[in-house]
Amino acid sequence: MMRISNLSIISSLITGVLYAGNALGASWPLDSAGSPASNSITTYYINPMFLWDNRDFINRGRRELNPALQRLLRYANAAVADTNVYSVTAKVNTLYAPSGDPHDYYSLARYYWPSTAGGQYVRKDGYPNPEIYSIPDSAFLDTMMDDVFDCGLAYFFTGNSTYSDRAVQRLRDWFINQATKMNPNLNFANWIKGTPTNANGTTAALGGGLLEFSRVWRVTDGIGLIRNSPSFTNDDWNALQAWFNEYYNWLIESPRGQAEGNSPNNQGTWYDVQRTTILLFLGQTALAADVQRKVTLSRLLQQVLPDGQQPLELTRPLSWQYSIFNLKAHFTQGWLAQSTGVEYFQFQTNDGRSAARALNFLMSYVLVNGSGWPVTNIGNFDPTDVVELAKEAFIVYRDVKYSSFVDAVQGKPASWNPFRLWAPYASIDGALRAGGQPTLGKSGWITALLAAAFLGLLFFGSVLQEL
Questions:
Q1: Distance between CA 41 and CA 30 in Å, rounded?
Q2: Residue 86 · residue 170 · CB < 8 Å
Q3: What share of the chain is helix, strand, coil (3-state, %, to 5)?
Q4: DSSP code, position 172
Q5: How many angstroms separate the CA atoms of 220 and 223, rounded?
Q6: Would you list the DSSP string of 268-306?
Q7: What is the CA radius of gyration of the chain?
Q8: What pLDDT does residue 206 have?
Q9: What span, in angstroms and rounded, lies between the C-alpha atoms of 446 and 435?
C-alpha cells in the first residue's frame, strides 16, 4: 500500500475539488460589512451560529435544552470548585520525563510491558499496562482541556465571569505562566521505557505519542468563547498564539511529528486533526483547508473500503474500538471543515468510499451486537460512540436511517447531552412523553426542521463531487 507521505497522485485529484471557497463557521454574529461583530464568538469545531441561536431560545424561555444546559453547568461548577493547578510541573520530580526538565510533557506507551530480558519493554497491542497511570500528565491534560471547554461554554450561556476566570486560569497554568507552562513539544509522550535518548535528551523518530493532544479543538474553541470576557487579556492571546505557533512548528518539523504524520492509520488522521485545528487558531485557514483536502481525504481513500471496512484498524486486537476511533477523527475533520470551506462530509468516491459508508458499516454490527464481525476483537462491542456518530450523521445528512438507528439502540433520548447545545435546536435527543412521542410541539418541530434545513444549506451548498 502506498504510504501517506507519497500521495501526490491522489492529492492532485482532490486538489481544487470539494472546496466551497469560504469558511462557513468560525465567527458569529457578523456586522453589516460581514466582519465579526464586537460581541462575536469564534469557534472552529462548533458552529457558533447554532450556539448563539440556542442561547436565544433558552433566554426566551424555551425549556427543551435545559437538561443539557444543567449538565454543562454541573461540569463547569465542578471545575470552578477545583482549585488545583493542572500542569506538567505539578508532579513529583521522580516522575519527570527522561530529560529531567519538569516542563516536558511525559506519558508512557499504552501497550508496552516490561519483558524478562534486560528491562526492555515489548508491545502487547490491545492490553494496556497499568503503569501508564503512574504518570499524571495525560490526566492533567484531559482535565485542562475539558475545563477550558466546559467553562467557556458556561460563560457563553450565562455571562458569569466566574467561569471565564477558571478557564483562563487553566490556560495560564498550562501554556503561559513561566513556572508551570508545558514546553511546546511532545518529545516524551507515549514514551517506551528503555528507549535511548540523544545528546539533547530527545528520542529518535517514534510515532504514536501525539494522540493525547488530539482533542486540542476543545482548547481553541474554549478560547474563542471567552476571548471577549473580562477575564481574558491581549497578553493571554499573544502568549497562546506564540505557544501554538511553536508547537505547530515542532509538530511538522520534528522526527516524532513527521513519523506521526506518515502513519497511515488513526494516528495519522488524528495528527491531521491537530494540524487543522491549530492552523485555524493561528489564522491560517487556507493551509488548514489544504491539510483536509490534500492529506486527510487522501488518507480516507486508503483507510476505507467501498463497503465501509477500515482494514488498517481491523488488524488491531481492539479492532472495533479502533475502527470507531479513526472514524471519530474523520468526523472531527468534518466539523472543522465548517471553518475551512472544504466539503468534507460530502466527499465520496465513485466506488462509495466515504465517512458515511464507514459509519454505516459499524452501525450494521451494532444492531446484531457484533455478530459476524469479520476479524478478531478482544474488546466488547460497545455501541455508545457509534450512536453519538449517528446523531452527528443525522444532523449532517438529514437521513432518517440515522435517527431510527439511534432510537433503536439508545431507547430513551439523552436529553442531558451537552452536544445538544451546539447542534441545531432540538434536532437530537428530544425528551419523550408517555408512549414514546417527542414532546416538541408543532412550533418546536418547525424550528428544528428549519434549523436542520439551514445546516443543510451550509453543508450541501454545492453539488456532491466525486473522483
A1: 10
A2: yes
A3: 50, 5, 40
A4: I
A5: 5
A6: HHHHHHHHHHHHHHTT-HHHHHHIIIIIIHHHHHHH--T
A7: 22
A8: 57
A9: 21
Q: Which of 298, 378, 289 is nearest to 336 (CA)?
A: 289
Widest Cα–Cα separation across the chain: 71
Distance of CA 215 to the CA centre of its chain: 4
The beta-carbon contacts of 132-140 under 8 Å, at least 24 apart in sequence, are 132/107, 132/108, 134/95, 134/108, 135/91, 135/95, 135/106, 135/107, 135/108, 136/90, 136/91, 136/95, 137/88, 137/91, 137/105, 137/106, 137/107, 138/107, 138/212, 140/86, 140/87, 140/88, 140/90
Q: What is the pLDDT of residue 194?
A: 80
Residue 108 bridge partners (DSSP):
191
pLDDT of residue 216: 98
Q: Strand pairing of 112-114 and 121-123?
A: antiparallel
For residues 207-225, one letter each, b for 16 or more C-beta atoms within 10 angstroms of the residue's C-beta and e for the rest, the string is bbbbbbbbbbbbbbbbbbb
Beta strands per DSSP E along 75-207: 106-108, 112-114, 121-123, 188-191
| 463, amino acid identity | V
Find the length of the chain.
467
**Closest Cα partner for 345 from 360, 330, 362?**
330
Query: pLDDT per residue over 36-77, tens digit each?
Result: 999 999 999 999 999 999 999 999 999 999 999 999 999 999
Side chain identity, residue 387: V
Which pLDDT tens digit goes with each residue over 283-301?
Answer: 999 999 999 999 999 999 9
pLDDT in tens, 447-459: 444 554 444 444 4
Other Cβ atoms closer than 10 A to 371: 8
Over residues 176-183, mean pLDDT = 98
Cα distance between residue 37 and residue 32, in whole Å: 9
Report how far residue 393's alpha carbon sits from residue 108's, in angstroms, rounded to the nearest whole number.
35
Please write the tens of the pLDDT for every residue from 257-269: 999 999 999 999 9
Which neighbouring-strand residues pair with 36?
Answer: 30
Other beta carbons within 10 angstroms of residue 457's beta carbon come to 9
